[in-house]
């Protein structure tokens, strides 16, 4: 995650045209992925705007996520406040789950003679972030966003009681082109009986970095050239080898392997910084659709892995599609250097 010593001197400041910048390949130990930075393929960093901003969010005639329509949803798991008809958020089962929570008794029984098939046991839940249809997550105050984060934590702790579950992915799709099928602000959680390949690759990359340097690469991610902002407990950065244009990571300042160890104070602190970053993205990039993902450690991570596993929240504005080269190689092309993005985002004023 740390940058080469020449990164801040490579050029590409406001006085340089993108045509004069040389392409560069960077490998990030966190994603364990090579990224090609090819600024000649793009405009100046300040010229990036979403071509398909989020559509206005009119309330449809019957949105099941709106307050008063609770009976139209899949079963509720819990709400905040508990048992209150005037709820602030609800956690429910997904009406169309990708995995089945009813298959646990079979979850350790392979269906074939190989280990390449297991029963599709898991959990797929939805967090409805507000009772009001027109409110987006970035409209909610830091305490309210903290409540959403603590709801993730509570549900993770509940799911972790199931021994068959190995990894839990929290994610948010905001906007139709980012994968959201409902316009009412919500996020999702999927609990898997396997550790996904991207997670395994992340563990391999951070382990290699730790063995080479004796340090956690995410603890080392706070180079001044890449930092956008910080709060008491978190820092927002553009990663040194950002896979996507204007990608942002929010990282705990203190070494922490598991998101669900987040306490109430840090949840509000993270809520404030997350709100700030979403507002900056909306202002600078013409309110683009976006995704965010919480990258945490597998539930059964070993004691020896803890020194190099460090959770973070990744925000990806949807500004460009993925083409055949990326699909074929797993190597991405980013048309804007991360340090240029960090400079632009630092300068976005929200006042």
UniProtKB/TrEMBL annotation:
Active site at 186 (tele-ump-histidine intermediate)
Q: Where is the Galactose-1-phosphate uridyl transferase C-terminal domain?
A: 208-312
Cofactor(s) needed, names only, are: Zn(2+)
Residues annotated as region Disordered?
A: 1-63
Q: Which positions bind Zn(2+)?
A: 63, 66, 133, 184
Per the entry, the cofactor note is: Binds 1 zinc ion per subunit.
What GO terms describe the biological role, i.e. biological process, of this protein? galactose metabolic process
The molecular function GO annotations come to: UDP-glucose:hexose-1-phosphate uridylyltransferase activity; zinc ion binding
Q: Which residues form the Galactose-1-phosphate uridyl transferase N-terminal domain?
A: 21-196
NCBIfam families, A to Z: galT_1 (TIGR00209)
* Family the UniProt entry places it in: Belongs to the galactose-1-phosphate uridylyltransferase type 1 family.
- Designated name of the protein: HIT-like superfamily
Organism, scientific name: Arabidopsis thaliana x Arabidopsis arenosa
Identify the taxonomic lineage of the organism of origin. Eukaryota, Viridiplantae, Streptophyta, Embryophyta, Tracheophyta
């Amino acid at each position: 995650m740390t940058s080469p010593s020449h990164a801040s001197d490579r050029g590409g400041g406001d006085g340089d045209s993108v045509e004069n910048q040389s392409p560069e390949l960077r490998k990030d130990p966190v994603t364990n992925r090579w990224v090609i930075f090819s600024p000649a393929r793009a405009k100046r960093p300040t010229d990036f705007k979403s071509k398909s901003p989020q559509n206005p969010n009119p309330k449809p005639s019957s949105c099941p996520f709106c307050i008063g329509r609770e009976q139209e949803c899949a079963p509720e798991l819990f709400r905040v406040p508990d048992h209150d008809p005037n709820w602030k958020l609800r956690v429910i089962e997904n009406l169309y789950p990708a995995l089945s929570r009813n298959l646990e008794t079979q979850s350790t029984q392979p269906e074939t003679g190989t280990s390449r098939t297991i029963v599709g046991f898991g959990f797929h839940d939805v967090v409805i972030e507000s009772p009001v249809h027109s409110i987006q997550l970035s409209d909610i105050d830091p305490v309210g966003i903290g409540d959403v984060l603590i709801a993730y934590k509570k549900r993770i702790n509940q799911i972790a009681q199931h021994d068959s579950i190995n990894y839990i992915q929290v994610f948010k799709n905001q906007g139709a082109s980012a994968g959201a099928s409902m316009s009412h602000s919500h996020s999702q959680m999927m609990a898997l009986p396997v550790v996904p390949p991207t997670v395994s690759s992340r563990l391999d990359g951070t382990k290699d970095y730790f063995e080479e340097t004796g340090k956690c690469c995410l603890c080392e991610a706070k180079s001044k050239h890449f930092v956008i902002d910080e709060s008491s407990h978190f820092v927002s950065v553009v990663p040194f080898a950002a896979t996507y244009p204007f990608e942002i990571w929010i990282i705990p300042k203190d070494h922490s392997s598991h998101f669900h160890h987040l306490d109430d104070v840090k949840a509000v602190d993270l809520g404030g910084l997350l709100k700030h970053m979403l507002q900056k993205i909306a202002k600078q990039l013409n309110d683009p659709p976006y995704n965010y993902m919480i990258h945490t450690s597998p539930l059964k991570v070993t004691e020896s892995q803890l020194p190099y596993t460090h959770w973070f929240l990744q925000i990806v504005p949807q500004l460009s599609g993925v083409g055949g080269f990326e699909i074929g190689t797993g190597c991405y092309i980013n048309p804007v250097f991360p340090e240029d993005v960090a400079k632009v985002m630092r300068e976005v004023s929200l006042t």
